[in-house]
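Course assignment 3, question 2. Fill in each field.
Student: A.L.
Task: Predict the tertiary structure for the chain below.
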Amino acid sequence: MVIFTDNSLSFAGLISMGKSSGSGFIYRSEKFVYLITAKHVLYDKQGLLWDNNMEILFQSFNDPSKNSRCIIDLKLNVPTYHKSGDVAVIQLGKVDNISADGTIKFSENIGVEFIDELIFTPIAAVEKLLVRFKKLSVGSDIYIIAYPTSLGILSSPQIDNSQPLLRKGIIANFNHHLSTIILDCPVYQGNSGAPVIQVINHTLQIVGIISQYVPYQQTWINYRDQITNVEHMNSGYSIATTIDDMLELISQSEITK
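Answer field:
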């Protein structure tokens, strides 16, 4: 039986910028700490940023009933994104030190303002906690940690949108032409950019980044009045970008540092 603790959810964050919102997560390379998300959470269809400022909300590592926040000035700290995969990265700062319990503190952050102290857990800290595309298997259990802010009714709140939700599914197959992962796991607005996780030997390993849901088309025709109505519904399947695309971006970024 897989057991998640409150602390294991604290590396995923809620992103808000202008008219766009989504999910993201923290990754640490040997030298730097990054925010990872889907490209379309940050950029519109014309390739323009939704806003020049971004707020990220995290569930507090020490107290899950509270939150930690940071603000990023994207004019000073410009994101980089993959040329074909739906993934973007923002460098949050340089690794300062790692404490005895494995939590990460960082420094040399440009354009990042910490509203509350942020201490990140090392859940996505090293490459051994990532699974590349060619190592994945159809039928494997997966989980997503995300902020589906579109769920619920404002007049009757059931979900605290400032807290992440865990969802379970499986890897249904792959699109080898696009190098994407097909999940039997429904996602909704706000899930984009969330980490897709496998649990192997009680260790959480990230395998992808949520990109979009797979719709199905439903058509209604009124033959008398010659009216056609087309609806796109959520099929319950979703698409994830691979970790390989993320690592390619980070590698390119660190070469220039």
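Instructor remarks: Residues 122-126 have pLDDT under 50 and may be disordered. The two ends are 43 Å apart (CA to CA).
Grade: pending
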